[in-house]
Design goal:
Order of helices and strands: HHHHEEEEEEEEHEEEEEEEEEEEEEE
CATH architecture of the largest domain: Sandwich
Number of strands: 22
Structural class: alpha+beta
Oligomer: single chain
Bound molecules: copper (II) ion
CATH superfamily of the largest domain: Cupredoxins -  blue copper proteins
Strand content: 35-45%
CATH class of the largest domain: Mainly Beta
Shape: globular
Distance between the termini: 21 Å
Number of helices: 5
């Protein structure tokens, strides 16, 4: 979602300098190692309240014994460790804007589908099927009326195809094997070409064995800027926010907390968020501290924008919102199906933060 400089800025804001992190890691590690086994083993069992509420027993003077940590304190330590690690660095960054090559006035994009290793959270490497080695794939951003060519190279062990989700294209360009085209077999290439129709926040993804292929990462944002700009088309920050819940777990833009990127804006700035759900579950996205104004559904501007702080994003949907960033601080921003966001080990999955800088 953001570049490294942005991550560093946010890390500073969160008090997460590397020395501070090292300190936190060092001081909590013992607790976590001792505590994980106990807390996890006993998580379902009732614990004596007095023990955890009172904390560790006083150490007799002259003793060198390490005080035992209560399961409650061990749980707190795990939660703190996750938060202090945010935003954690991982290899690979998806949703990077791809520059087209122009051939005879046609904006040409090449997408190579290939199997890669992808780091969703620090040390958590998974197999991904990715366009141009990114999850989500590169962000395609064009203008209503542009002539566009998308060349797909399939280097996967299965056939595939690209569907342009939300674009009202001529039938032959719809990308559904055996309905509008043959499957693109491994080793083959296939070219789509069309004049970009309806503006808005759209997507592209595999439409072949898609529960597996989209879950593994064959997806990306296809943003169409309108010919005539509306009131929300020049925000200070414009953020694509893709949800997924397939083989890689619960992710925002291909990463799980604490490796999710924070959204960063300055006080008073206008932030536009383009939610897109490429998963198979609903995800009610909840922002703390400020409301969202919903301005478009599936790319279509709403004649009457409405306000909320929790926005349900169902599979296949796109919702565009603007946030007037008028409340400084670091604000939790997460899916409110709580098992998608937190366990007794701390926050994970669909959690990030909106950082409003003063
Ligand atoms: Cu969710």
């Amino acid at each position: 979602m953001s570049d490294h400089p942005m991550d560093e800025r946010a890390a500073k804001l969160l008090g997460g300098t590397s020395s501070r992190r090292r300190f936190l890691r060092d001081t909590t590690l013992t607790a976590v190692v001792v505590g994980v086994a106990t807390a996890c083993k006993n998580s379902a069992a009732a614990k004596p309240i007095a023990q955890s509420a009172a904390g560790a027993a006083p150490i007799p003077s002259g003793s060198t014994a390490v005080p035992a940590i209560s399961p409650a304190d061990a749980m707190d330590a795990m939660h703190e460790k996750g938060i202090k690690a945010f935003p954690a660095a991982t290899a690979g960054k998806g949703n990077q804007l791809i520059e087209p090559r122009i051939h005879d006035g046609v904006k040409t994009f090449e997408l190579t589908a290939r199997k890669i290793r992808w780091e969703t959270a620090p040390g958590n490497f998974v197999e991904a099927w990715a366009y141009n080695e990114q999850v989500p794939g590169p962000q395609i951003r064009v203008r209503e009326g542009d002539r566009v060519r998308v060349i797909l190279h399939n280097e996967l062990p299965e056939s595939t195809a690209i569907h342009f989700h939300g674009l009202e294209l001529p039938n032959a360009q719809d990308g559904v094997p055996f309905i509008t085209q043959p499957p693109v077999k491994g080793g083959q290439s296939y070219t789509y070409e069309f004049t970009v129709p309806n503006a808005g926040s759209h997507m592209y993804h595999s439409h072949h064995n898609s529960a597996k292929q989209v879950g593994l990462g064959l997806l990306g944002a296809f943003i169409v800027e309108p010919k005539v700009k509306g009131p929300h088309d020049d925000p200070d920050v414009d953020q694509v926010f893709i949800l997924n819940d397939g083989a890689h777990g619960y992710t925002f833009n291909g990463k799980s907390f604490p490796a999710t990127a924070p959204l960063v804006a300055k006080l008073g700035q206008k932030l536009r968020i383009r939610f897109m759900n490429e998963g198979m579950m609903i995800h009610p996205m909840h922002l703390h501290g400020m409301h969202m104004t919903v301005i478009a559904k599936d790319g279509w501007p709403l004649s009457s924008p409405w306000k909320c702080d929790t926005l349900n994003v169902a599979p296949g949907e796109r919702w565009d919102v603007v946030v007037n960033c008028n409340n400084p601080g670091t604000w939790a921003f997460h899916c409110h199906i709580l098992p998608h966001a937190e366990s007794d080990h701390g926050m994970f999955g669909m959690v990030t933060a909106l950082v409003v800088q003063e």
